[in-house]
Amino acid sequence: MFPKRKYMDGGDGREMGLKRPQFDSSSSFFGASVGSSLMYNPSYAYAGQPPPFPVVRLRGLPFDCSEADVIDFFCGLDILDILFVHKGGRFSGEAFCVLAYPLQVDFAIQRNRQNMGRRYIEVYRSKRQEYYSAVAHEVSDMRGGSPRRSAPRARSADGGKDLVEHTGVLRMRGLPYSAGKDDVMDFFKDYELSEDCVHIVLNSDGRPTGEAFVEFANAEDSKSAMGRDRMTLGSRYIELFPSTPKEMDDAIKR
Protein backbone atom coordinates (compact mmCIF):
# COMPACT_ATOMS: atom_id res chain seq x y z
CA MET A 1 0.00 0.00 0.00
CA PHE A 2 2.79 2.41 0.84
CA PRO A 3 5.87 3.19 -1.30
CA LYS A 4 9.13 1.69 -0.13
CA ARG A 5 11.94 4.08 0.67
CA LYS A 6 15.39 4.14 2.17
CA TYR A 7 15.34 5.95 5.50
CA MET A 8 18.35 7.64 7.00
CA ASP A 9 19.21 8.15 10.65
CA GLY A 10 18.87 11.90 10.43
CA GLY A 11 16.62 14.08 12.26
CA ASP A 12 13.22 15.44 11.60
CA GLY A 13 9.69 14.04 11.58
CA ARG A 14 9.68 13.63 7.82
CA GLU A 15 11.90 10.54 8.16
CA MET A 16 9.65 8.48 10.43
CA GLY A 17 9.06 5.94 7.73
CA LEU A 18 8.82 2.84 9.92
CA LYS A 19 5.40 3.93 11.09
CA ARG A 20 4.23 6.43 8.50
CA PRO A 21 6.06 5.53 5.27
CA GLN A 22 3.55 7.48 3.24
CA PHE A 23 4.92 10.83 4.45
CA ASP A 24 6.35 12.80 1.56
CA SER A 25 8.08 16.14 1.23
CA SER A 26 5.20 17.27 -0.96
CA SER A 27 2.77 16.88 1.95
CA SER A 28 0.90 20.00 3.00
CA PHE A 29 2.34 19.54 6.48
CA PHE A 30 5.71 20.77 5.31
CA GLY A 31 4.56 23.99 3.75
CA ALA A 32 4.16 27.23 5.67
CA SER A 33 1.13 27.39 7.89
CA VAL A 34 -0.58 30.00 10.00
CA GLY A 35 1.87 31.49 12.48
CA SER A 36 4.76 29.51 11.06
CA SER A 37 7.23 32.28 10.27
CA LEU A 38 9.05 32.15 13.60
CA MET A 39 9.10 28.51 14.64
CA TYR A 40 8.79 26.34 11.55
CA ASN A 41 12.12 26.94 9.83
CA PRO A 42 14.08 23.65 9.81
CA SER A 43 17.25 25.16 8.39
CA TYR A 44 18.88 26.42 11.55
CA ALA A 45 22.39 25.04 12.12
CA TYR A 46 23.37 21.94 14.10
CA ALA A 47 27.14 22.33 13.62
CA GLY A 48 27.19 19.62 10.97
CA GLN A 49 25.29 17.11 13.10
CA PRO A 50 21.85 15.73 12.20
CA PRO A 51 19.04 17.51 14.07
CA PRO A 52 17.31 15.61 16.88
CA PHE A 53 14.15 13.67 16.13
CA PRO A 54 11.22 15.99 17.02
CA VAL A 55 9.14 13.94 19.44
CA VAL A 56 7.68 14.64 22.88
CA ARG A 57 5.94 12.37 25.35
CA LEU A 58 2.78 13.25 27.26
CA ARG A 59 1.58 11.85 30.56
CA GLY A 60 -1.63 12.28 32.51
CA LEU A 61 -3.97 12.44 29.53
CA PRO A 62 -7.68 11.94 30.25
CA PHE A 63 -8.80 8.44 29.40
CA ASP A 64 -11.39 9.81 26.96
CA CYS A 65 -8.72 11.89 25.25
CA SER A 66 -8.87 12.04 21.46
CA GLU A 67 -6.37 13.09 18.83
CA ALA A 68 -8.32 16.33 18.39
CA ASP A 69 -7.73 17.10 22.08
CA VAL A 70 -3.97 16.68 21.65
CA ILE A 71 -4.01 18.88 18.55
CA ASP A 72 -5.89 21.58 20.47
CA PHE A 73 -3.45 21.26 23.38
CA PHE A 74 -0.54 21.92 21.00
CA CYS A 75 -2.41 24.59 19.04
CA GLY A 76 -0.07 26.39 16.66
CA LEU A 77 2.36 23.49 16.23
CA ASP A 78 2.55 21.15 13.24
CA ILE A 79 1.77 17.62 14.43
CA LEU A 80 2.78 14.75 12.17
CA ASP A 81 1.73 11.83 14.34
CA ILE A 82 0.06 11.02 17.64
CA LEU A 83 0.63 7.58 19.13
CA PHE A 84 -1.48 6.63 22.14
CA VAL A 85 0.23 4.13 24.44
CA HIS A 86 -1.69 1.10 25.67
CA LYS A 87 -0.92 -1.38 28.43
CA GLY A 88 -2.85 -4.60 28.73
CA GLY A 89 -5.14 -3.44 25.93
CA ARG A 90 -6.11 -0.25 27.75
CA PHE A 91 -5.08 3.35 27.21
CA SER A 92 -2.36 4.26 29.71
CA GLY A 93 -2.85 8.03 29.70
CA GLU A 94 0.43 8.46 27.80
CA ALA A 95 1.11 9.40 24.20
CA PHE A 96 3.93 10.32 21.84
CA CYS A 97 3.58 13.36 19.62
CA VAL A 98 5.85 13.80 16.59
CA LEU A 99 6.30 17.37 15.38
CA ALA A 100 7.37 18.71 12.00
CA TYR A 101 10.67 20.27 13.08
CA PRO A 102 13.06 19.98 16.05
CA LEU A 103 12.58 23.62 17.05
CA GLN A 104 8.92 22.93 17.73
CA VAL A 105 9.88 20.60 20.57
CA ASP A 106 10.98 23.63 22.59
CA PHE A 107 7.56 25.21 22.12
CA ALA A 108 5.82 21.95 22.99
CA ILE A 109 7.77 21.69 26.25
CA GLN A 110 6.39 25.08 27.24
CA ARG A 111 2.98 23.40 27.51
CA ASN A 112 4.26 21.22 30.37
CA ARG A 113 1.81 21.14 33.30
CA GLN A 114 -0.86 23.02 31.41
CA ASN A 115 -4.40 21.73 31.67
CA MET A 116 -6.44 19.57 29.34
CA GLY A 117 -9.87 19.77 30.85
CA ARG A 118 -9.34 19.19 34.58
CA ARG A 119 -6.09 17.31 34.12
CA TYR A 120 -2.67 18.91 34.01
CA ILE A 121 -0.48 17.29 31.41
CA GLU A 122 3.20 16.48 31.69
CA VAL A 123 5.18 17.13 28.51
CA TYR A 124 8.81 16.14 28.21
CA ARG A 125 11.39 15.37 25.57
CA SER A 126 11.59 11.90 24.13
CA LYS A 127 13.84 10.09 21.67
CA ARG A 128 13.49 8.43 18.31
CA GLN A 129 14.22 5.01 19.82
CA GLU A 130 11.50 5.40 22.47
CA TYR A 131 8.95 6.40 19.86
CA TYR A 132 9.78 3.52 17.52
CA SER A 133 9.78 1.06 20.42
CA ALA A 134 6.26 2.22 21.28
CA VAL A 135 5.24 1.88 17.63
CA ALA A 136 6.60 -1.67 17.52
CA HIS A 137 4.70 -2.54 20.69
CA GLU A 138 1.42 -1.18 19.31
CA VAL A 139 1.86 -2.98 15.99
CA SER A 140 2.76 -6.21 17.80
CA ASP A 141 -0.40 -5.93 19.89
CA MET A 142 -2.53 -5.47 16.78
CA ARG A 143 -0.98 -8.47 15.07
CA GLY A 144 -1.66 -10.45 18.20
CA GLY A 145 -5.36 -9.81 17.78
CA SER A 146 -5.90 -7.21 20.47
CA PRO A 147 -9.51 -6.02 20.23
CA ARG A 148 -8.81 -2.43 21.21
CA ARG A 149 -8.70 0.56 18.92
CA SER A 150 -5.57 2.63 18.32
CA ALA A 151 -6.84 5.59 20.31
CA PRO A 152 -9.44 6.05 23.04
CA ARG A 153 -12.66 7.57 21.77
CA ALA A 154 -15.01 7.24 24.72
CA ARG A 155 -16.97 10.30 23.63
CA SER A 156 -18.31 8.51 20.57
CA ALA A 157 -21.45 6.43 20.53
CA ASP A 158 -20.98 4.09 17.61
CA GLY A 159 -23.39 1.35 18.50
CA GLY A 160 -26.16 0.36 16.13
CA LYS A 161 -24.17 0.79 12.92
CA ASP A 162 -25.90 -2.22 11.42
CA LEU A 163 -29.29 -0.62 11.97
CA VAL A 164 -28.54 2.54 9.99
CA GLU A 165 -29.93 2.85 6.47
CA HIS A 166 -27.18 3.06 3.86
CA THR A 167 -27.10 5.85 1.29
CA GLY A 168 -23.86 4.92 -0.49
CA VAL A 169 -21.69 7.20 1.68
CA LEU A 170 -19.34 6.09 4.47
CA ARG A 171 -17.47 8.22 6.96
CA MET A 172 -13.95 7.14 7.94
CA ARG A 173 -12.37 8.07 11.27
CA GLY A 174 -8.87 7.52 12.60
CA LEU A 175 -6.93 8.10 9.37
CA PRO A 176 -3.23 8.89 9.63
CA TYR A 177 -2.84 12.62 9.08
CA SER A 178 -0.61 11.91 6.10
CA ALA A 179 -3.13 9.63 4.38
CA GLY A 180 -4.12 10.69 0.88
CA LYS A 181 -6.88 9.72 -1.51
CA ASP A 182 -4.76 6.92 -2.96
CA ASP A 183 -4.44 5.36 0.51
CA VAL A 184 -8.21 5.46 0.99
CA MET A 185 -8.81 3.97 -2.45
CA ASP A 186 -6.34 1.20 -1.65
CA PHE A 187 -8.13 0.57 1.67
CA PHE A 188 -11.30 -0.04 -0.39
CA LYS A 189 -9.47 -1.72 -3.27
CA ASP A 190 -12.28 -4.23 -3.81
CA TYR A 191 -14.59 -1.42 -4.91
CA GLU A 192 -14.61 0.81 -7.97
CA LEU A 193 -13.62 4.23 -6.63
CA SER A 194 -12.09 7.30 -8.21
CA GLU A 195 -10.35 10.21 -6.50
CA ASP A 196 -13.54 12.24 -6.93
CA CYS A 197 -15.29 9.74 -4.64
CA VAL A 198 -12.90 10.39 -1.73
CA HIS A 199 -13.21 13.54 0.36
CA ILE A 200 -10.53 14.19 3.01
CA VAL A 201 -11.92 16.45 5.76
CA LEU A 202 -9.75 19.47 6.61
CA ASN A 203 -9.93 21.84 9.57
CA SER A 204 -10.03 25.64 9.36
CA ASP A 205 -6.23 25.71 8.94
CA GLY A 206 -6.40 23.38 5.97
CA ARG A 207 -4.99 20.40 7.86
CA PRO A 208 -6.48 16.88 7.80
CA THR A 209 -8.69 16.01 10.76
CA GLY A 210 -8.26 12.25 10.46
CA GLU A 211 -11.69 11.85 8.87
CA ALA A 212 -12.84 11.29 5.30
CA PHE A 213 -16.03 10.58 3.39
CA VAL A 214 -16.24 8.03 0.59
CA GLU A 215 -18.98 7.85 -2.06
CA PHE A 216 -19.68 4.35 -3.33
CA ALA A 217 -21.52 3.40 -6.50
CA ASN A 218 -24.60 2.38 -4.53
CA ALA A 219 -25.95 1.60 -1.07
CA GLU A 220 -25.18 -2.10 -1.47
CA ASP A 221 -21.49 -1.36 -1.96
CA SER A 222 -21.30 0.94 1.06
CA LYS A 223 -23.02 -1.67 3.22
CA SER A 224 -20.61 -4.33 1.99
CA ALA A 225 -17.64 -2.01 2.59
CA MET A 226 -18.62 -1.78 6.27
CA GLY A 227 -16.90 -5.15 6.53
CA ARG A 228 -13.67 -3.12 6.55
CA ASP A 229 -14.65 -1.47 9.85
CA ARG A 230 -11.80 -1.63 12.41
CA MET A 231 -9.34 -2.84 9.76
CA THR A 232 -5.92 -1.20 9.65
CA LEU A 233 -4.42 1.43 7.38
CA GLY A 234 -0.72 1.41 8.14
CA SER A 235 -0.69 0.85 11.88
CA ARG A 236 -4.01 2.54 12.58
CA TYR A 237 -7.42 1.02 13.14
CA ILE A 238 -9.97 2.73 10.90
CA GLU A 239 -13.55 3.20 12.06
CA LEU A 240 -16.32 3.28 9.48
CA PHE A 241 -19.79 4.80 9.86
CA PRO A 242 -22.76 4.90 7.50
CA SER A 243 -23.29 8.52 6.50
CA THR A 244 -25.37 10.69 4.18
CA PRO A 245 -24.60 13.10 1.33
CA LYS A 246 -25.77 15.99 3.54
CA GLU A 247 -23.44 15.06 6.41
CA MET A 248 -20.61 14.76 3.90
CA ASP A 249 -21.35 18.14 2.32
CA ASP A 250 -21.60 19.85 5.71
CA ALA A 251 -18.25 18.40 6.82
CA ILE A 252 -16.49 19.37 3.61
CA LYS A 253 -17.81 22.95 3.69
CA ARG A 254 -16.85 23.58 7.33
Tell me what you see in this structure:
The chain contains six helices and eleven strands. It has 254 residues and is α+β, with helices and mostly antiparallel strands. It folds into two domains: 131 residues, Alpha-Beta Plaits (2-Layer Sandwich); 93 residues, RRM (RNA recognition motif) domain (Alpha-Beta Plaits, 2-Layer Sandwich). The strands form three sheets. The protein has a five-stranded antiparallel β-sheet with strand order 2-3-1-5-4, with helices on both faces. A hairpin with a 2-residue loop joins strand 4 and strand 5. The relative contact order is 0.15. It comes from Phoenix dactylifera. Pfam families: RRM_1. This is Heterogeneous nuclear ribonucleoprotein F-like. One of its GO terms (molecular function) is RNA binding. Keywords: Repeat, RNA-binding.
